[in-house]
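We give the chain.
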Amino acid sequence: MVSSLPHPTTPAGRDGLAALLARPDKAVVALDFDGTLAEIVPDPEQARAHPGAVPALAALAPEVASVAVVTGRPAGVAVRYGGFAGVPGLEHLVVLGHYGAERWDAVTGTVQASAVHPGVASVRAELPGFLDSVGAWPGTWIEEKGRAVAVHTRRSTDPQAAFEALKAPLAGLAARHGLVLEPGRMVLELRPPGMDKGVALAEYVREVGAGCVLYAGDDLGDLPAFAAVEKLRSNGTPGLLVCSGSTEVPELAERADLSVPGPGAVVGFLADLAEAVREAR
């Protein structure tokens, strides 16, 4: 094994890594985008994959059954911001966007998508006036996500206070329109129910027929994917949970088998993993 490859701190994590190294051809490597492959930035439209992400993924992808990016972003946006299209080695990359409601396959270069929930359009129209009615927080802004709408508080004068003050009112607004509220790192997303990374990951793992799975994430929205891997492990499929370290989301770090300090370290881990797989042949 590559000497620099970090070791999981849990028995289940060590079993998951061992299974991946023993049978990489049966492994699914699934990764969140923002905060995992890309740094969190004040303006989400400026987010881009870490410079080492594409080379690391291109080195790892041919060695495993599949690499999937699982994100709340639209699939096409993640592909553009990640620079994933047309990369040698990533011919079979899959991007599961909008928590699985959209899917981009590198082999076709096209996006497949389900119908948009009607509540999203209703919330989008109501949200600006609604925020004014519950009290303006300077710097708070709305992100249009196509199949969801998000309210960001990171630029507010008091991001955490704005986040806490808006959480309950936005949960009520979401419920009135048949949506759910998903809290994140200084962001509150209103989106359709039944859409989460756990559902998307579990369905994709079944589709591929994976014998083991690695999932890496950084935020509350990744907890359902962690739960999906934990369920797979309870049913006999080994798995490894990686947290892209954040002091903002201790809930994720507490459940991870391995924590690394942010996207740069995730990319380094993926590159080392690709080398370890080649050495283990």
Summary: The longest helix spans residues 159-176. The mean pLDDT is 94. The two ends are 11 Å apart (CA to CA).
